[in-house]
Amino acid sequence: MAATDAVFSRVRRRTEAVQFERLDGRLCLAAEPGLPAYDVGTPLLNEIWVDPAAGDDSAGGATRSAAVRTVAEAWRRVPVGVPLATGVRINLVAGTYPESGVPHYWERRLGSASAPVIIRAADGAATARLPALNIFGCTHLVLDGLDVSARGGDVLHFEACTHVLVRNTTVRGLGTIADYAVPQEALKANQCRHIYIENCDISGAWDNAVDFVAVQDGHVVGSRIHRAGDWAMYVKGGSAGILVAGNEFFDAGTGGFTAGQGTGLEWMTAPWLTYEAENIVFTRNVIHDTEGAGVGVNGGRNITITSNVMYKVGARSHVIEVGFGSRSCDGDRARCAALLAQGAWGTDVVGVDVPIPNDGVTIASNVVFNPDGYVSRWQHFALAAPRIPPAGSNVPVPARADLNLSIVDNIVWNGPADHSLGIESPDLAATVLARNTINAARPVLVDPAGADYRLAANSPVPPGWLGTPVAPPVVVPPPAPLPRLTAAFATIAAAPTRAVTTFTVTFSRAVRGVTLDDFTLRRGRVVLSLRGARVQTTDNRTFTITGVRGTNLAGSYTLTLRAARTGIVDAAGLPFASPVQAAWRMARWAPLRA
Ligand SMILES: [Ca+2]
Ligand SMILES: [Ca+2]
Hints:
The chain is mainly beta. The structure holds calcium ion (2 copies). One calcium ion binds near residues 514, 518, 567 and 568.
């Protein structure tokens, strides 16, 4: 573990350098794949609890039993627009948080490393279900264990935020991609610094599952990123300094991951005003079942793509692409012109498309394995030929996609022996053929049908291989729908001869919130006091009510367990909804103690 962590810290430190430092492949194969983790530290925190079923927005909020009811109220209690003196942790009790109780915009909570704002699912990952979240201008924010779903817009959106950690969180766009009835992006971050995504499951978008625009510094690790109509993920618009490692990308249209793509100039932030993406390390990921390329670079400088496994990629055309990014002006012509005057690459004319070149792309030691019968349609690679950018765009002439391009030590198994290489330059084609193993050695994966894409022990291994790609990360599955929560009283003799003073009620699964005041005892229509009675349980399923008095007179009795406003919920926060009743008749007076 430590050895690989060292590799990663070295990788991260060296992202400024042109070349990626390699390690002995066998050393790494023996090491446990370690991924970096953002360190939240142990800050002092004020606690706010939220319980969507039993909470009350006028409550103190400091404990589970004094929870507020809505996230909006909890968020309102975090000071706005001023640096926090003490951190805040908002604890979300298991349950579904309706849109009506969630802030429309989460704005300007200014945490720091020693005083962050943490929003966590208190009862475990995926137990707190939230609608779409739009977060603007926040600093040092942590989302931990949430389950965020939405049908439109972006599911989880960060704008102008710095130091955001999203961990153990499910972000799910609902709906069908084929007819665009699904969010545009599942997770989008724009104009942000220091964004960290760890061990998340992010899916469901007609464009991208993850879209970073003008995001500098951060990592995306150990996550499942899938179900997208376009690239499953890209980082673009002057994004820089990002490690993407140990993820699984799958079920995407245009492709798996690309560094750079196309951006309106006005969305970019100084000084990252030229390339689409800079200093990106993409390593030890698995990319499978993408119609288009497994990976790409489109307008990147110093991009390292190494030690990834691609499986069943590129049926549409090719498996790896190195092309141009594109730069437009989306309408804010004044800002585009001002940035051009600073030396930005692009245009201030709407409708003009400026090609963004590459410089220093390294694609090394990857494995591409398309099993028999699966082949990229046209060629292995797609490599763009030089282009002449429009005058005044500030882009070097000619714009080249292959400046300082290195494609080495990859093992590609894809279609027939004479499948087109897809590289027009004869010199580069000769180099790529000489320095890579293309349709000459067949990779062996452990069990791709069973979702284990690691290289098997008997597989050829690329030189410089940085350890087996991580197996698909363990992700908390979405909560399964549960059957209705019910309860029943233990049978009481219809006509007992002794006063009934003890009752037993059993729920269909464990619950909390069962209190004496949830029960109503009646003789005829008269409500009797339950004072002195006690409710006890050892397993939170079966509850015994003892010490009930006043049941020794002749008459018809009922003991009712109400449902509404009892605060009785199961572990997932589902409320108890159907009242139950025990009924009996005392034919004559009986002594209380027989
Ligand atoms: Ca997008
Ligand atoms: Ca109760």
